């Protein structure tokens, strides 16, 4: 399952509004499934604010410089072994390549840690992971 939001966004955005991020994290982790990979695309709040303004010209309560700065601080404070932070100022093509590389590393770890199955099956899955191509259109080849 690939998602563009998870409880980490709640922790960051509600934490930026004054709730305790550590408590929000603890509460969510008491029931939520731990991801195999969390990609945080980080960029300066000023850049994010400019990008948000280009969407439709209207922001929301989470899209102020103060809120984005605090949300970024909370995201950057997360210490998770499955978290990969990428530079959001990179080109879309470079970001796509880095995300795909992070996915491949996480998938390879998952296969390596999976019990059962023959070596041949494991090798076939690893070859398939290595062959995944990202076209930027949501399809894979």
Give me some keywords for this one.
single chain, 6 helices, Rossmann fold, mainly alpha, 2 strands, 141 residues
Structural commentary:
The chain has 141 residues and is mainly alpha-helical. The relative contact order is 0.13. The model is unreliable at 135-141 (pLDDT under 50). The protein has two domains: 1-88, Rossmann fold, CATH 3.40.50; 90-141, no CATH class. 56% of the residues lie in helices and 7% in strands. Strands 1-2 form a two-stranded parallel sheet. Helix 1 crosses helix 4 (65-77). The protein is built from six helices and two strands, in the order H-H-E-H-H-E-H-H.
CATH class of the largest domain: Alpha Beta
Order of helix and strand elements from N to C terminus: HHEHHEHH
**Individual helix count:** 6
Summed over residues and divided by their number, the pLDDT gives a mean of 86
Query: From the coordinates shown, what is the CATH architecture of the largest domain?
Result: 3-Layer(aba) Sandwich
The structural domain count equals 2
The major β-sheet equals: 2 strands, parallel
